[in-house]
Amino acid sequence: MIIATAGHVDHGKTTLVQAITGVHTDRQPEAQARGMTIDLGFAHWQPAPGLRVGFTDVPGHERLVRNMLAGVAAIDLALLVVAADDGPMPQTREHLAILGLLGVPQLVVALTKTDRVDPPRLLAAQAEVAALLHSGPFAGAPVFPVDAPAGHGLAPLCRHLAAAATALARQPAPGFFRLAIDRSFAVDGAGRVVTGAVVSGTVRVGDAVELLPQGSGLRVRGLQVLGEVVDAARAGQRCAINLAGADLKRAAPERGDWLVAPGAAGVTDRLDVQLQWPAGTAAVPGPRAQLVLHLGAAAVPTRLAVLDADVPPPGHPRLARLQLARPVSAAWGDRFILRDAAAHRTLAGGRVVDAFGPARGSRQPQRLAQLAALAQPDPLSALAAWVDSAPDAADLAHFARARGLQPAEAAALHRQLGLQVLAGPAGPLGLRQSRWLAWQARVLQAVDDWHARQPDNLGPDAAALHRQLSAAPVAAPASGGAATPVAQALLHASLTAAVASGSLVRDGLSVRRPGHRPVLTDDDAALLARITPLLQAGGLRPPIHGDLALQLDLPLPVLQAGLARLVERGL
Prior knowledge:
Helix content: 25-40%
Distance between the termini: 75 Å
Shape: elongated
Strand order of the largest sheet: 2-3-1-4-5-6
Mean pLDDT: 87
Radius of gyration: 33 Å
Strand content: 25-35%
Low-confidence stretches: 31-36, 473-482
Structural class: alpha+beta
């Protein structure tokens, strides 16, 4: 489990971490001289054999919120530190708002410096904390009064943290491996080492990994979890990774980069997101507002465009697009914070919905329906909504990439939903069985209509069926008819299935019903009777069109038109 501190400057965060772990997290001489944390500090704690807990100590000064955000990007529990003599202060409130916007799952409050206050003031401080938490996501969070230097009150707090860590250790670590890098340094004799929180998946010594956004392929030479050499690290742990690879020197990993399993995530300069505004926000920033996106341990200038036109009730999230000043690595569900670059204040938070959205059409109804589907937390419900939002067949490859699904995970969802999966131009397509059966029925009906209109014709080819379905009054549910690449793939699959079942027969490039036989017109039948002996006599060297026209005493255009009709009939 990973725990991060939060709270106002000089409320005793570093002292509390040292009292629990025995480690003073202020590494820099400047921080030690000033007695104030200025950057992230790290410690580890082993409350029980085999149970490891990592602590990230963050700065509390208002000018160091960027560093604080890098430390709480991927944590399991926040330890909010409030001094009993001061009570909640401005950075207490901002840090608490940030934790809520990031969706931190658990919060515990340590009420420090209890040795400096009398009992009435301690009760008042507890009431102030309860009032601060009352209307937010952490209402009812446990509060532990402590005197960290003397050790008073630490035992109940440590028992609570150990119980939370024990519960988390039993949970699986699904998904691709991803680590948010917060430190990068060289070690004599070992080379480059990066540290950070494992956000998802598992990594092992010898694994191939990718450094993003650089795109460099590297290898895991060694692993440590909380100072102990290990063979593997998993989600919910802080680890140090010794890297190797030919591109390592050129790649130059730094805070804000990601280390991921190959294919786990992409690199993008635009993100479609779900935004949550803190209570009391006056107005949504315009597209020209200069904002900073804090994602993982990175801070990137960005601009915001709200996508959904309808304004939801207060407290409800909104769909938006973030256009970034430089590429980042991101995946579905990554939490982030948006801050005002000029005013140095937190504006909003949210989570990534799609890191691979199209460059254009982000406000189109179908795209908004796709984003609403992707935003659903349950993957099966999200896939169902994604498939239902498609005008014909849904792009399953995009869904799996957007949601960060491994191939086996995606295939399991397809089976659970009972999808008909087809090969598409850019990956698998999927649709519900009812729609698949409707498509097959429409194709058979189109062939029947063709035979009824042109009984002398052998049958349509695929291109003719495309045109017929596109022009039909009740076309495929796609806007623009059946001429889209997805609909073409769906038509091809429908034809293949109909031929395999015996509902259609292929004759060359044409398809027909099994019982259909073309009936020639009298003129075409007469032409066939006259031309057949001449072609048979020519053997492998039939006469050219001009000679045939002379022998048959027909104008050349009339002969060529008749030949074309006979060829279309497979003759």
